[in-house]
């Protein structure tokens, strides 16, 4: 277990999307976050108290979470130095980067010297099976996207909260480092060997017969040349009954690829439905989730209404506007299984 409370690392970050792990923890586990660590050249903030490592320890922090992401997930020299400084101050360190803490000798040596723990969140467990595509009981919803980092995790977590608030049984299934840190379990799908991606999802969302929903966090996009492979395996392993399409309406191009335009909503939805039908022939789209954080409320409401009309699906910003329209569609499309009464003679 990763000890909390956390100090969330921003460092020298300038990319808002790049701090999504720290931001996700601040939003969904606020009681476990005591502060943020950032340098003067970092213009970003989580609106948490700014703290140094020793100050955070004095405030009760137990773990520094390296909640940043970059292309390739590498630790630069400055990040390594900060991790060591945090260890020397008395903090454990958790990281979701592809570059493992355990593979950096200086960090390992510092942790051993000071008796601190290292947590590599992007470590898949051993023994993941190959997917088999066999039909399994239960209802599963998967969030998909026009691009990576458009709000799939937020939409999935908001759906879990909204469904539970309405008395429904719903469980978030994390597939990325941020979701795993929030939920405490899951599979870091982009670190799973390709042959085992669908099997990993089958394993974390097994058959269920309680009329509850597994809400599976989506990853990447079928239209992103770098990450479409993960998205494909996820669609097949999830065997989803329902899809929610996520989109950032102000994204100028595919993340990290200025030479690739963002695809249209309709073509993205159709492509995901086609791929999903391999293992779930009756899959349905049940809603659209827009990240409208860069828009005014009036603009956001207008865009949601226009999108709903264009696609014939409920459209909302799950975080800013709630998820009731999508849950209403889910309930209309998937009635609970009837309970068979038995007579005692």
From TrEMBL:
InterPro entries: DgcN-like, DgcN-like_C, DgcN-like_N, P-loop_NTPase. Residues 130-326 form the D-glutamate N-acetyltransferase-like C-terminal domain. The lineage of its organism: Bacteria, Pseudomonadati, Pseudomonadota, Alphaproteobacteria, Sphingomonadales. SUPFAM superfamilies: P-loop containing nucleoside triphosphate hydrolases. Residues 50-124 form the D-glutamate N-acetyltransferase-like N-terminal domain. Pfam families: DUF1611, DUF1611_N. This is Putative NAD-dependent epimerase/dehydratase family protein. Coiled coil: none annotated. It comes from the Bacteria.
């Amino acid at each position: 277990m990763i000890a909390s409370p956390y100090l969330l690392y921003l460092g020298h970050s300038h990319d808002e999307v790049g701090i999504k792990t720290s931001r996700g923890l601040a939003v969904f586990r606020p009681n476990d976050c005591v502060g943020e660590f950032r340098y003067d050249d970092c213009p970003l903030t989580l609106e948490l108290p700014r703290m140094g490592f020793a100050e955070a320890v004095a405030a009760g922090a137990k773990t520094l979470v390296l909640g940043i992401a970059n292309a390739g997930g590498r630790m630069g020299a400055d990040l390594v130095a900060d991790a060591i400084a945090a260890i020397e101050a008395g903090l454990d360190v958790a990281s979701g980067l592809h570059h493992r803490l355990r593979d950096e000798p200086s960090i390992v040596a510092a942790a051993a010297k000071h008796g601190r723990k290292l947590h590599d969140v992007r470590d898949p467990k051993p023994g993941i099976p190959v997917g088999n595509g066999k039909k399994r009981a239960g209802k599963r919803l998967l969030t998909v996207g026009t691009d990576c980092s458009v709000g799939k995790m937020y939409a999935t977590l908001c759906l879990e909260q909204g469904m539970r608030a309405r008395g429904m049984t719903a469980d978030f299934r994390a597939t990325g480092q941020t979701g795993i840190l929030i939920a405490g379990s899951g599979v870091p799908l982009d670190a799973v060997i390709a042959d085992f991606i669908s099997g990993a999802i089958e394993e974390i969302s097994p058959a269920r017969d309680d009329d509850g929903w597994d809400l599976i966090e989506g990853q990447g996009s079928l239209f992103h040349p770098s990450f479409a492979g993960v998205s494909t395996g996820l669609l097949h392993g999830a065997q989803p009954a329902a899809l929610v399409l996520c989109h950032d309406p102000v994204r100028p191009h595919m993340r990290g690829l200025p030479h690739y335009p963002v695809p249209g909503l309709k073509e993205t939805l159709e492509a995901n439905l086609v791929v999903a039908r391999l293992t779930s022939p009756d899959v349905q789209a049940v809603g659209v989730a827009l990240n409208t954080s860069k828009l005014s409320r009036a603009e956001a409401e207008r865009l949601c209404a226009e999108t709903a009309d264009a696609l014939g699906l409920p459209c909302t910003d799950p975080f800013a506007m709630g998820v009731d329209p999508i849950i209403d569609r889910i309930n209309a499309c998937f009635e609970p299984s009837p309970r068979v009464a038995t007579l005692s003679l």
